[in-house]
Amino acid sequence: MLESINHTAQYIKSRIGDFEPEVGIILGTGLGGLVTEIEVEKQLMYSNIPDFPISTLEFHSGKLIFGTLGGKKVVAMQGRLHYYEGYNMQQITFPVRVMKMLGIKTLFVSNASGALNPDFRKGDLMVIEDHINLQPMNPLIGRNDSDLGPRFPDMSEPYKYDLINKGLSIAKANNITCHKGVYVAVTGPNLETRAEYKYLRIIGGDAVGMSTVPEVIVANHMGLPVFAISVLTDEGFPEQLKPVSVEEILAVATAAEPKLTLILKELIAGL
């Protein structure tokens, strides 16, 4: 795997010249608009990058964006990969490893998720302080390469406390409703049943989604600090559960995106 990572990173470097990103960003479902805030220097389609997995979702663009945001050099994934698309965990997290090889020092992750905490509402934001992994595979299974990270990486602080606190402070200063909570990762692609929502809340979840955790595990494996934030696009409250469509989820994510963008931009500027 290390050979493939290095091969991909070298190809990208040949296309972006002396540009060295210090921040990596993964943009979730319906949240690609942050790119409009980036002073773009270079764009690469996933399909043109050797060994790079291609997003199969029609609402994920599938581009690596290189440019400046908040005065920092960034590389942003406009379109992420999911287990339910048929990729294995090593493929899903391959871009994180490549971004690390390109020079990033911090990883920022966004996603769209469903609210489990009855005090939360759709359209709110939630900074992830911890997670519960219910996905069936782990990206670190298999032979460990010590050049990438340790065999048994510590996960006592998967999301950096200082970034969490700064993100919440930025939200408060801008009158943005932003909670702090635990994210539960499931496989998808179906949404949860009434009983499943109840179970996920009982075990400690505040929000549920189908991404993020594999990337965070690999980031921690490689020593990358992480900040992750969710847009709560629907409500998984068993007593008042209603049908929800992908179109509705995308609409809520799009409406909430300017708030998320403001928080990420100010956080990155303050690094």
UniProtKB/TrEMBL annotation:
EC number: 2.4.2.1
GO molecular function, one term: purine-nucleoside phosphorylase activity
CDD domains membership: PNP-EcPNPII_like
InterPro entries: Nucleoside_phosphorylase_d, Nucleoside_phosphorylase_sf, Pur_Nuc_Pase_Ino/Guo-sp, Purine_phosphorylase
Upper lineage: Bacteria, Pseudomonadati, Bacteroidota, Sphingobacteriia, Sphingobacteriales
GO biological process, one term: nucleoside metabolic process
Summary of the function given for this chain in its UniProt record: The purine nucleoside phosphorylases catalyze the phosphorolytic breakdown of the N-glycosidic bond in the beta-(deoxy)ribonucleoside molecules, with the formation of the corresponding free purine bases and pentose-1-phosphate.
Protein family membership: Belongs to the PNP/MTAP phosphorylase family.
Main enzyme class: transferase
Name under which the protein is recorded: Purine nucleoside phosphorylase
Stretches assigned to the Nucleoside phosphorylase domain: 23-269
CC terms in the record's Gene Ontology section: cytoplasm
Entry annotated with the keyword Cell inner membrane: no
Pathway noted in the entry: Purine metabolism; purine nucleoside salvage
Any Pfam family hit: PNP_UDP_1
Record keywords, A-Z: Glycosyltransferase, Phosphoprotein, Transferase
